[in-house]
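Memo subject: From amino acid sequence to discrete backbone structure tokens
Action wanted: Derive the backbone structure tokens from the amino acid sequence.
How to read it: Take the token row as a discrete description of the fold.
Attached in line: The record itself begins immediately under this heading.
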Amino acid sequence: MTPLINAAAVAALADERVDWRFKGLPAAWNGRTPAQICADPRELVSAGPLGPVCVLHADALNHNLATMADWCVRHGVELAPHGKTHMAPQLLARQFEAGACAVTAATISQVRTLRAFGVRQVVLANELVDAAGLAWLAAELDDDPDFRLICWVDSTDGVRLMTQALDRAGRFSDARRPVEVCVELGAMGTRTGCRDDARADEVAAAAVASPRLRLVGVAGYEAALGHDVSAAGVQRVGDYLKWMRTVAARLAQRCEVADIAEVVVTAGGSTHFDLVARALAGPWRTILRSGCYLTNDDGLYLRTSPLTRPGAEPGGFRAAMQVWAQVCSRPEPGLALVTMGRRDVSFDQGLPVPQQLWRDSHWTPDGLAGCEVTNLNDQHAFLRLSPAAEAVAVGDWIAFGVSHPCTVFDKWQLIPVLDRGGRVIELVRTFF
């Protein structure tokens, strides 16, 4: 079986030298490789990070990988985790090892990055109408018979533009393989996708008629309806998924007529993947595209993930990501300014959560009860202190949980992975 990622290309990242380009890391690491740094692991705070610094916790990552893999097997679905979450080949390799069938991308540039590491199975969760991107894709498909990509179509205009671009590309290459597509369905008032049965059928017919495309299934994104896990929110998502299933059953017949042996039905963000599995598992390949499960978080997904929200069964996901920063000012009672801002941590789905203080060479939750981040500037966090936390002093290190890991990963190019003792055992490279 052809590997889903080039292990040698991933391993080579451990031999790239660390330098000033990678913020937050100890200056003493300059000129050394990740392999050299991790060969003699040290506790990160004592190594002298130039904070703030983003970290990942190995135990939580491993737990989340195993938990999601087991969940998918038990519910009869496959997983193509969204690569835009981390854009880290090392983490993607772990997801493949845990059983992921493919990786999801949002843009053709992300696909190009994935291909640089030999990734063989890609879901592009968008309609690709970029002529230059389609020409590149056609050449990749010609050059590598083991490379498979599925993307979306949601309009006859899109089908026409894709067909024309691939026709032009075919004049300069063999371009023998058609691009595989799913008809995308979208709820009214949300993002992309066909809005009704007539449009879906029309787009499917156009895709089947195109000599450059190959209809293989149906796609959707239920999280476009929001992260509401109330009864009303669940009902909205359930109605959308019920419609998806009905359309999938109808369009599967078109695929059968076109001699497509393997029909794909795909949806599933990180909030409602339980509803997706319940509604869409069936006589086809049901593929989830959840990405944030790998790190989960201490905000949005703690509240909404099926495996961590209130009422979830024990043993669910663990938060695997933190950002550490120092108190740089105590300008008035009840307020601390911390060296962490919008350049360093997410703020689009909730502010960071103060969790631990560095005291006597270890992290402790003592001393932060009732504290809250109230605002972020570009490089500062405003930490409102409770009366019990007035002992927090300039120079103290604080570890913060995050909300929405997607918009933390993209702010860090090299992220230390820590063992239980806080020692650095890997450095994860991201490519945004």
User: Anything to note?
Assistant: The first strand starts at residue 53 and ends at 57. The chain is about 30% helix and 20% strand. Residues 83 and 239 are 28 Å apart (CA to CA). The mean pLDDT is 95.
